[in-house]
Amino acid sequence: MKLATKTPLNHRTASPVALTQLGFGGAPLGNLYRKIKDDEAQATLDAAWDAGIRYFDTAPQYGLGRSEIRFSEALRRFDTDALTLSTKVGRVLEDCAIEDVTPEAFVDVPQKRIVFDFTYEGIMRSYEDSIQRLGSDQIDMLFLHDIDAGTNGQAFEDNNLRQLFSQGGYRALSELRAAGKILAIGAGVNTWQICERLLGEAEFDGFLLAGRYTLLEQDPLDSFLSLCIKRDVGIILGGPYNSGILATGAIEGARYDYAPAPEHILSRVRQLGEVCAAHDTPLIAAALQFPLGHKAVKTVIPGASTPDEVRQNVAIFETPIPQALWSDLKGEGLIRPDAPTPKEPNHAA
Predict the structure, then answer these.
(1) CB–CB of 316/284 below 8 Å?
(2) Which residue windows are coiled coil (predicted)?
(3) Which is the catalytic residue, given 6, 55, 62, 256?
(4) Directed axis angle between helix 120-134 and helix 66-77, to 10°?
(5) Domain 2-331 classification at class level
(6) Is 57 a catalytic residue?
(7) Which residue of 20, 162, 341, 347 has the lowest C-beta tally within 10 Å?
(8) Does the active-site annotation cover 280?
């Protein structure tokens, strides 16, 4: 199957990390927006494995540990030599009073709160805690989680970076990589600018970038993606639907960046949808496949909370898209003229 064909995150690490072009985002398994049963979560992971997906991503934040715990059961069933797993560090989970629980968009979560900590001790504790929840030390990649953000909606980027570079956080990641406990390090964030800043400070292998290089947004073409090519840094593209609107279309209540979409976004999505419809192509398929046109982007990882959603993601990924669609989107000024587009449709072998 095509999905089982892997591409390396980069070519300079001693043990290159291999990724299927379609990965699995584990946020929904933390009960994102709705509660799902454990057996449904396991069936969803099995459906991803059966489809040929071999790259899986999770994080302590997702359900305050629930996603990682659910992954632990699947790791006992799967051939771990064949899969690649990433999780995130920098958000430490602590027991707390019920009124201090920080569920964010997750429901039915354990009684925990999130504490941002990018120091040496914070990174090491976050890593060890993830090993305990996963029931395995097979973590291939560690991403600094939302290092450009903090609690209560306030930005603590400078403080977080000070912890990372002056209080040993980066040293902790480097030690884990040098010891072979992990294969690659990077950041999992919602802004490309912080990734570019990190590349100016140290050596990173890849970044998990959520929602910032999509049919709606191509600003990373200005400098960041070319820098990734130059530095041999791979991009894992999360949030290819900009948190929903590129999947649903411009319907009432459509969400963009986790909030109701403003009118200018709704209007642009309507135009994108009209061009896609003229080529008998679902908007969602164009949205999922577009990022892979850039050679810095190694994989896209839409989330799924049911086996049917996994199968839908695979079908969308394999939908043939005519080259004329990309040309027309550029001609209408809906995507940038310098945006590279996929050359071939994805097919199951």
Answers:
(1) yes
(2) none
(3) 62
(4) 50
(5) alpha beta
(6) yes
(7) 347
(8) no
Dist CA 235 CA 195 (whole Å): 10
What is the torsional sign of CA 159, 161, 164, 165? negative
Please give the chain's pLDDT, 349 residues, in tens.
456 678 999 998 777 899 999 999 999 999 999 999 999 999 999 999 999 999 999 999 999 999 999 999 999 999 999 999 999 999 999 999 999 999 999 999 999 999 999 999 999 999 999 999 999 999 999 999 999 875 444 456 789 999 999 999 999 999 999 999 999 999 999 999 999 999 999 999 999 999 999 999 999 999 999 999 999 999 999 999 998 999 999 999 999 988 999 999 999 999 999 999 999 999 999 999 999 999 999 999 998 999 999 999 999 999 999 999 999 999 999 999 999 999 855 443 3
The catalytic position among 2, 37, 50, 88 is 88
Sequence ranges of the domains in the chain: 2-331
Residue with tokens 């990965």: 23
Q: Which of 162, 172, 166 is nearest to 128 (CA)?
A: 172
